[in-house]
Amino acid sequence: MTKPKVLITRRWPDSVEQKLQQLFDVSLNLDDHPMSAQELSAALQEYDAVCPSVCDSLPAEIINTPNKRCRILGNFGVGYNHIDVNAAREQGIAVSNTPGVLTESTADIAMTLLLMSARRGAEGDRLVRSGGCSGWCPTQMMSSDVTGATLGLIGFGRIAQAMARKAHFGFGMRILFYKPTPADPEDISRYHAQACASLEELLPQCDYVSLHCPGGADTRHIINARTLSLMKPSAHLINSARGDVVDSQALIDALTAGKIAGAGLDVYENEPRLHPGFLALENVTLLPHLGSATIATRTAMGEKVLANLQAFFTGQPLPDRVA
Ligand code: DGY
Description:
By secondary structure, the protein is an alpha/beta fold. It contains 12 helices and 12 strands.
């Protein structure tokens, strides 16, 4: 029996690539270059399955490529706002994602950013490396406490709740959250959390605000000049969700004018390009989208895609279907 033709658009951990090669007729992107729109479009005509990740933009114009062979997009990642799932549905292409396996590592990166921003970690590292550190003194690089402070979560899904657990039980933080739909009361009481009815209620109360909502049209620029102005001047904003949730220019203006104290970012609008205004600021910590970047997590993500492809090509229901 001929094996389904599968394209993996970027390099994955070796162990998963090997397993995939045993099951399918796999093409790897050996030099790991970001694929162009033309390459992705051609891939839809050539392969039964295409396995993209967050760096592959698949809008309707690409999904609607004529003479397609592709029947499933096995996304390597939980977020899928880079794929027009409505277009995929209309074109009869299934889409799966990788929920559950990157919860802890992504919440760990959010907590890393929160601690780095609060305690000026990246700035301190730059100071030491530049030779500008003249030794300890009582007023050097004073910063803000994390332990006992109030954390506001925007979104209250798996990753937000992992963040709530680490922050509440690890750092004694008070947890508030805003989510447009009602949350499960058991989840709320587990972290002694408090639901807020709006961003207007949440933001003024928080020392730290961490974003855990999906990207896309509904959440685009929910952090903007107006909502930033509701935050305390001493507050820090953490984004490990999606870049377009935050209006970059508004955040740069707020950080420059001291309207908020700091920010920690793992994701950017127009990733991988980021607004050059961030580079000049000391009070923003910048990471290169590392949320799920542990060996165990990236391996588990690959295994999830593999399980979805296996189910699809043996006629079983997809474990993680999003379209
Ligand atoms: C995710 O899974 O959504 C991560 O951000 C990597 O894409």
